[in-house]
Amino acid sequence: MKHHPARTALPLAAALSLAAFSAHATNGMNLEGFGPIGLSMGGASMAYDSGMAAMMNNPATLALGGEGDQLALALHYLGPDVKAAGAQSGGDAYFMPAIGWSRKTGKLVYGIGTFAQGGMGTEYAADSPLAQGTGQPVRSELGVGRLIVPVAYEAAPNLLVGATLDFVWAGLDMRAAFAPGGPRIDFSDDNDFTGRAKGTGFAGKLGLLYKVSPTFNVGLTYHSKTALSDLETKDNGATFAGMTGKATIHNFEWPETYAVGIAWQASPKLMLAADVKHIGWSSDMKDFELVFTPDGGSEVPLTMAQNWHDQVVYALGVQYRVNDRVGVRAGVNYGKNPVPDATLNPLFPATVEWHYTAGFDYRVSQKGSVALAVSYAPEVSNTNGMTITHSQLSGMVGYNHQF
Asked: pTM of the full predicted structure?
């Protein structure tokens, strides 16, 4: 019986796209690495074959894969450890599935996949100082994901190009006083995979890979700013100051990103990779613009200043092939905290800077392989009226099958 992986991948990707995967801060709100190979290399992934995660990295590198079909499954675990004013955040374990399928026929590659983009959030108990004596829990959770249709093409023997069309969705929960001592805004569905305020839209990516020599590649990529709708609850999906109504978040977008990377096959067993990435937070994280509209009433604007800085992220990774079945990897990733102390909020502590990563892959059969990656972000401490600390341990496991 002939297998048709596309028929399996398409409904799986569509089903997974219904979940607004929750993620927590790494490079700002962006995950520091996509896919177990890229994550274990410190996130460096723009100039070599990183598998199906190329859809999130540099789509041109999809054309580096072999002829035929590939199906990849992955599960990403995030374990943030956040404390604010001595209160421990209970949001310490989050799981994000991902799936990608591609087919290479001659010089052309196409496919479909769904991945978590990133996000941030925390949870504090009702008796914590963050509750400000209300006896109500404090919670925020932002998740952003993408359903991606990529295409890549070998334009010349040493030049690969690629592009993606991305359907983007976002979900947000929030339960807290909007300002210290002020009334609470409350909208939350208490679900790890959705947010009560939802929005959808589109984005795209362009990629290029140039083979300078048989052992040295240069990759370039551009990720457009998203075009998301407002994030909205239902008409009676939120409360504010004792009133029931609708919450709307205006002008929330994921910023444009561009990156350059290199990969050097120093020997048949040893590869080195490095990326530099620019994330334009300043244009899209200037203000958090929330509007509450009570039933039968007028809009109440609630604006929270953010004033994030743009972020330059540096990633360095090394891979060593022990033999035909086993490869080991390690990496480091650094991006200066984009959040000013003056606007740091315990609900959105996107402040970690260094990440240290490692991983391996193991070929379990002629056509199948598993890969594992771990990432550790040491604790950072910042103060804005209260001290907020944040560290993080992440992991990812994936399986890739060729047809």
From this structure: 0.90
